[in-house]
Specification:
Blueprint (H helix, E strand, L loop, with lengths): L4 H13 L1 H10 L3 E2 L13 E2 L2 H15 L6 H23 L3 H17 L8 H5 L5 H25 L6 H19 L3 H23 L6 H18 L12 H6 L1 H17 L11 H7 L4 H22 L4 H24 L3 H5 L1
Antiparallel strand pairs: 1-2
Length: about 350
């Protein structure tokens, strides 16, 4: 498949068509976000948490319609995503602590790793004779777990405003779709187009129509799928010394936000998993930027970083890595600057 237009259009149509049914189902299941149930919840009326239901139902429909694009690796990824979704759904219903949520993500990671869907960075060390194959595989597993946990929770944590996660999902999916086209990975291009269509539908229902929230089941599932796409992405026709930086940069915005939140809460002795108004979006508002433009700033930043990621594909390895580490240094500078500013919670104290 050289043209991802068909799966994109069909997934958009189904994600739009299924919006009302999943919203009604969420209400029937009592998947509702109640105003003032936590300090950071400032919405005015009970709102369905239907995002995860929309993602899973649209994925199921696309899988049934396009079974020829269900390769073994994709089936493994979808099985892992189902585990993450179910634990997220449990969290939306009962309000779980961090422990059960991490257990769910760990089980999903076990599904992937046991089926061979993992990173293989450390294998280079064993091939060169620096470490044994056993140690290399252990390092591969640790890196895989860190990546999956990090990105899954990064998308969950940054879900602090309507449209922000769906918008980031759109940007990342577009970039994965383009990157996998260049890398000649048609199956991954297909499912990147599907995820793009789903995120476009989510953006409409969550932001433009304002009918439901993504919930943990929605934001975690998007994060897990994007993390898996980053693992499966394999640009064999590009520099192996630098092409590994592309997935990291494509997901740079949620990584930045999570780093900011974790650092801020550690410094203040606050629980990392607590719901607070100290994310990038909230800090931009605290600086006087309107909510609409704060979300736009986050999305524009993600788009710029993704553009830089594509540039690195066409650069010599040393220059690509220079771009990458320069971006990290700049990001750390901005992070430390924002961290010193009071959050919305601190301004209201």
């Amino acid at each position: 498949m050289s043209n991802p237009f068909l799966p994109l259009v069909i997934s958009i149509l189904f994600s739009l068509a299924l919006g009302y049914p999943v919203m009604l189902l969420a209400k029937r299941l009592n998947l509702m976000d109640i105003p003032a149930s936590a300090p950071h919840k400032i919405h005015a009326r009970p709102t369905p948490l239907a995002g995860g239901l929309l993602i899973i139902s649209t994925l199921a429909v696309m899988g049934l319609l396009f079974r020829q694009w269900l390769g073994r690796e994709i089936l493994v990824v979808l099985a892992g995503a189902l585990v993450v979704f179910l634990f997220g759904l449990w969290d939306d219903l009962k309000g779980l602590s961090a422990g059960p949520k991490l257990i769910g993500q760990f089980l999903a990671a076990v599904v992937l790793i046991s089926s061979g869907v993992q990173v293989y960075f450390a294998t280079i060390l064993s091939d060169a004779g620096y470490v044994s194959p056993f140690v290399a595989q252990a390092l591969n597993i640790v890196i895989t777990l860190f990546w999956l946990f990090g990105i899954t929770n990064a998308l969950n944590m940054i879900d602090s405003m309507d449209g922000i996660v769906a918008g980031l999902g759109i940007i990342a999916s577009v970039c994965f779709m383009a990157a996998t086209l260049v890398a000649n990975q048609p199956v991954l291009t297909f499912w990147s187009a599907v995820l793009l269509g789903i995120c476009a539908g989510l953006y409409y229902w969550n932001n433009l129509a304002g009918k439901f929230f993504l919930g943990d089941s929605g934001s975690q599932t998007i994060g897990f799928l994007l993390a898996c796409f980053g693992i499966l992405y394999n640009p064999l026709n590009r520099n192996p010394e630098s092409s590994w930086i592309v997935p990291i940069m494509l997901l740079g915005a949620p990584v930045f936000d999570t780093s900011l939140v974790v650092l801020s809460r550690f410094r203040r002795g606050q629980p990392v998993g607590s719901g607070r108004r100290d994310h990038t979006y909230h800090r931009l508002i605290a600086l006087g930027i309107s909510p609409r433009y704060a979300v736009l700033t986050v999305h524009l930043t993600a788009l710029i970083i993704s553009g830089l990621a594509f540039i690195t594909l066409y650069l010599p390895a040393w220059l690509a890595l220079t771009f990458f580490f320069s971006t990290i240094i700049f990001g750390l500078t901005v992070l430390l600057s924002l961290e010193r500013k009071p959050s919305l919670d601190e301004q209201s104290d």
